[in-house]
Amino acid sequence: MMKLKSLKITVSVLLFSILLSMFVLYTPTPVSKNDVEFSAAYAAETIEAISREPHSVFDPIAHETVRLYLKDRLETYVGAANVTEMNYTSLELGADTEYDISNLLAVIHGTSDTGILLVGHYDSRGHVGRDGELGRSYGAADDGYAIATLLEIARLYADKNLTNSIYILMTDAEETGLYGAYMAATEPFMDDIGFIINVEARGNEGPVYMFETSSNNEFVIDFYKNAKLPVSYSLATAVYTVMPNLTDFTEFLAVDKQGVNFAVLDDLYYYHTPNDNYNNINLSSIQHYGSQIVPLVEAFVYSSTYSDVNYFVGDQNQVFFTILPNVFITYRESTMQVLHFMLLALFLGITTLLVVKKQTSLLPIAKYIGLIFGLVAVFAIIGLYLAKLIAFIGSVPFSITYVRMQNTELITLFILLSTVVALGFLYKKFVKTEENKKALMIAGIFINLLFAILTGFALSGASFLFFVPALFGTVSLYCLTFIKNTVGLHIALSQNILWNTLLIVPILYSLYLAITVGGLLAFMVILVINMATVIPYFFKQIEL
User: Fold this and answer.
1) 8 Å CB contact between 148 and 288
2) Would you state the torsion angle of the CA atoms of residues 306, 310, 316, 317, taken in this order, to the nearest 10 degrees?
3) Is residue 33 part of a domain?
4) Does residue 242 carry a pLDDT above 70?
5) Are 168 and 44 in the same domain?
6) Residue 483 belongs to what domain range?
7) What is the per-residue pLDDT across 170-212, written as a single tens digit (0 to 9) for each?
8) d(CA 458, CA 456)
9) 28: Cα within 13 Å, side-chain hemisphere
């Protein structure tokens, strides 16, 4: 009877955790037209106007029509005297181009010339790129979302009395080589730029991720915490370095500017194709750009703190992740190292006590450490070959970071759920004695803690993926060792399920959006390591 009650509690906690995890990547309700808020409705009007035709540099008539439309809109908001056409010939671009380009720069002056620079490109994709890209995009999302966001900022702040300035840069020829940003990065106005927000789109819907920062981002992340409904993971910058994409932000990083980069990632299949059109825009996603970016602009332009153009230059990075809507966890690398070794000391202390009390021993712990590593390797290989098989069936090229194929969401979900079920089955089938159960718990925590410490030195942004499971695994082990009250144990073990679910479900979903089904190898590795600290406690709670 007690086990049935425990089963109900455990399953209820799991279902609640999964349900709650679906709200981590929440996007806001679109705002209708009004004079005081960022409005997705106004933004949609802009997108409709500029996405009637493909307007790449290879479509000169449509391209010029869009440029003149944007120039007129900027002049209407900030005045013609504050809008500059920055024209460059093909000779100045220093590349084998057959076209000239033209950036648009609008300035809303504050008391200080130091300013925040908002960047988006107005050219659309005009030719076939990587496999599966059809070209001839209408540029509604990429980069109409950015252009509409920039015009909304101009509309909202044009008549305000600002402490710091706002620079709005609409670049040209991003799709063909980042040429507009490359040239803009050399202009004198860049000396006055203290912070950059680049706006992009790699899809057309879903949450807007802040997916890239400048290096040594400690003050950048402190500033990003002003955003409403922030969605970001320090893992993202590491993943982005292996992605086959560059953005205008790349050129500003090259001249040592600080800032952040935003994009939607969902519906990759629409990216760089004729499906990137007005009929497929998502108003909630557009509003999410505003929810994050407007508070950053607001904080910057009204604080003399940011009048120091070098304010955001830092000495270290931060580890950060979204765990619930508007719950954004951050800590510096120096703090991360302290946390890692404090947890290591606690873990070793509890393990030593359990060994001394003969509740477990070192040999089975070592055995299970080896078995978990073996399972990681096996499931990684399974993930790799399943991804290759899916790409083969879909007749598309395979890459571990890019398989451009529609309708792979359900098969990916099925594979990951099957992996969890398989791990649970193996646990129930082969882990019987209390000594072995404790040994497996310790082995799972050890592996997660080991990866947390190693990534802390080599790839700090990814360390939280392993630190959080290790933390709650250790807390659960501590409670099982020292707490005898059943209610207290249920609460402790429920926390393990809750926080690991809130972490792993959005992370795996976000990674799927970023690197597609080709990333099954990485998904499997992360999932198996995470489950090593969840499954033993899940079944232990049922046994209470």
Assistant:
1) no
2) 50
3) no
4) no
5) yes
6) 2-24+331-543
7) 999 999 999 999 999 999 999 999 999 999 999 999 999 999 9
8) 6
9) 19
C-alpha neighbours within 13 Å on the C-beta side of residue 347: 25
Instruction: Please tell me the distance from the alpha carbon of residue 72 to that of residue 70, in angstroms, as a whole number.
Output: 5
d(C-alpha 231, C-alpha 291), whole Å: 11
Same domain, 14 and 107: no
Does pLDDT of 470 surpass 80? yes
Lowest-pLDDT choice from 2-16, 112-126, 147-161, 466-480: 2-16
- Distance between CA 458 and CA 452 in Å, rounded? 10
Under a CB-based contact definition with an 8 Å cutoff, are residues 123 and 173 in contact? Answer: yes
In a domain, 29, yes or no: no
pLDDT reading at 519 higher than 70:
yes
- Cα separation, 23 vs 355, whole angstroms: 41
List residues bridging with 322 in a β-sheet: 328
Query: Under a CB-based contact definition with an 8 Å cutoff, are residues 169 and 118 in contact?
Result: yes
Sorted by sequence, the CB contacts under 8 Å of residue 468 that are 6+ apart come out as 499, 500, 503
Answer whether residue 33 shows pLDDT above 60. Answer: yes
Taking the C-alpha atoms of residue 507 and residue 82, their distance in angstroms, rounded to an integer, is 43
How far is the C-alpha of 487 from the C-alpha of 485, rounded, in Å?
A: 6
- DSSP annotation of 233: B
Helices 409-430, 535-543: axis angle to 10 degrees equals: 60
- C-alpha angle 352-353-356 in degrees, rounded to nearest 5: 85
- Written as one string, the DSSP assignment of 125-184 is P-S--STT-------TTTTHHHHHHHHHHHHHHTTS-EEEEEEEEEES-TTTTSHHHHHH
525: in domain = yes
Residue 128, pLDDT score: 75
> Could you give the number of structural domains in the chain?
2
State residue 318's pLDDT score.
96
Q: Are strands 259-266 and 193-199 parallel, antiparallel or unpaired?
A: parallel
Within 8 A by CB and 6+ apart from 380, the residues are 521, 524, 525
**Whole-number percent of the chain with pLDDT over 70:** 98
What is the distance between the terminal CA atoms of the chain, rounded to a whole angstrom? Answer: 11
Q: What three-state secondary structure class fits 517?
A: helix
Same domain? For 357 and 318 the reply is: no
Within 10 angstroms of residue 337's Cβ, the number of other Cβ atoms is 15
One-letter amino acid for residue 208 of the chain: V
Neighbours of 497 (CB within 10 A): 22
Cα–Cα distance for residue pair 226/456, rounded to 1 Å:
26
With 0-12 CB in 10 A as exposed, 13-18 as middle and 19+ as buried, what is 146? buried
Q: Is residue 31 part of a domain?
A: no
Instruction: Report CA-CA distances (Å) from 492 to 351, 448, 473, 477, 499.
Output: 18, 19, 10, 9, 11
> Given a cut of 80, is residue 143 above it in pLDDT?
yes
Q: How far apart are CA 377 and CA 393, in angstroms?
A: 24
